[in-house]
Amino acid sequence: MVLQFLPSRLCLPLNAPHFHILPSTSVSLSRPNRRTIPTMSFPSSSSSSSASPSVTDPNKEEEEQGKVAQALKYHHQTKHSFTNYARGPRGLDWANQPNPFRRYISAPLIPLLHFPAEKQAITDDAPLYSSLFHSLPPPKPISQSTISQLFYDSLALSAWKTTGYSTWSLRVNPSSGNLHPTEAYLISPPIQSLSDSPFVAHYAPKEHSLEVRATIPSGFFPKFFPENSFLIGISSIFWREAWKYGERAFRYCNHDVGHAIGAVAMAAATLGWDVKLLDGFGYDDLQKLMGLDIFPEFKVPSRPIKGKFPDIEFEHPDCLLLVFPNGSNQFHVNYKELSSAVKEFLNLEWKGKPNSLSREHVCWDIIYRTAEAVKKPLTVQSGEFPVDQFQSSGICSENSYKGLTVREVVRKRRSAVDMDGVTVMERETFYQILLHCVPSGNGGKHRRQLALPFRALSWDAEVHAALFVHRVVGLPKGLYFLVRNEDHLEELKRATRPEFNWEKPAGCPDDLPLYELATDNCQELAKRLSCHQDIASDGCFSLGMVAHFEPALSDNGAWMYPRLFWETGVLGQVLYLEAHAVGISATGIGCFFDDPVHELLGFRGSKFQSLYHFTIGGPVLDKRIMSLPAYPGPGIDT
């Protein structure tokens, strides 16, 4: 029985909140003269030349501990509880809603090619969605067409929606609140019809075009990277998300980074390309490589405050992805030499001035202090870059998929607003979806991230899933647990409630580490834990993603904090695509009561923490909303 494990505070007579207005936890934001704002100045760089875990100098060790403490402080301060929500705005300031589209004014704009979104014949150019989890098609050359296709199927607009006087765009990659803090950059060798020289370009999704920011030295790619490879940089504008969600926004920005990584990895796989995170790079290197040092240093106020802070619209460089032909041999990467070469990017002629996103802003200071603390230093290492062999994923119900191509799935992906509370899922379909959610693929012990799209990440799996099963035919309703790193299994058993069963459910594939914990109808429980949202109980199943949290920070450093959220975002991307591929829908849930989830599972302390919730089921469509094509769209968000 699940109900016997109900957290005692679940019985509180709480009404469902209006999530945009949190008066009980909001901060009164004053508007003092800017000259009197107490500030702390954070340098634009904090990277050292050594990796965090190898710190031996007592001063550096103390500094690293302080950074981990800041990450933990942020995490605990931004938890929702039954009595208080994390601090956020009193209401939505529509006059200052951030522009969702960054542009670099006066930078040359190069249009990319468009592709048909309707039903395609199944070919190497348009493979079945499910086929990518078994093997990748032959790699295609880098060209105007393939680069266009990569962005079109990963980060481009997917549609426009309109109702009444409101019009808004949707994208292939999902985003919390559809606010899209994520920006992307292409760093590439010469590509015919795009550029005769190696270049750095910002991707402009509204125009499906590249804004060329700079040309780079001709010897850069041949010296450091394999043939037929290029780079994609990802950055975040925290203000876009903080406008709506306040202090919790840093979490959501990093969810979105993970979704973007997953989206790029899936689109690249369609072209026969592999994707790997170049995680030896430090924050400084990423900033120079993407030309983001163009933004002035942002001086962080000592408390949340409202005013005109144009510098708050800076982009925080998150990560760098190497895209290269699938099946490539291992190659040598010397991060120290690479970092030295990237320093010369400061001398390049960078084109374009970033556009303004809002007239006024609110600075939630803890976001920027935490972003400073979790900046990754350069990891000085030289050796073979690990290129693990592609590992296919498990199969138990191939017939669950609807015969859709990758493009049909990724471009028709939507975030459901409501679930119908009626749609059911077959047990074999449930198991098939979860087989695509485990990191190591078919056969063997799950730990290393070898299967698509998790293979883009550079660490062993740290994220698991606690599942609330509501409407799966042939499977008892109740609480289940998917162990995505089997090295954690015994630790999880010790950390959770002793009453849990930890038994494999009936018909579960041998290579799927799914366990039944307790059986009961847990629809109301799932709803209450996810901020009283019906969508968590009205689907076929919902889940909370649970990270091996404090040990990951202790073992690696504070910079691992955002990466745990990236992993949840990649997992969430798979759940979105799987749901649409089997003919239903899904939605990520960022609002949940953190510690009551931990209490339900029996977790104490911070060894395991819930970072992201999700729901999958039959969507309720709002017929008042009309869909318009992504390109050409109406041209403006209103």
From TrEMBL:
Pfam families: Nitroreductase (PF00881). Residues 140-293 form the Nitroreductase domain. Residues 41-54 have a biased composition (Low complexity). One of its GO terms (molecular function) is oxidoreductase activity. Residues 28-39 have a biased composition (Polar residues). CDD domains: McbC_SagB-like_oxidoreductase. InterPro entries: Nitroreductase, Nitroreductase-like. Residues 28-66 are annotated as: Disordered. PANTHER family: NITROREDUCTASE FAMILY PROTEIN. This is Nitroreductase family protein isoform 1. It comes from Theobroma cacao.
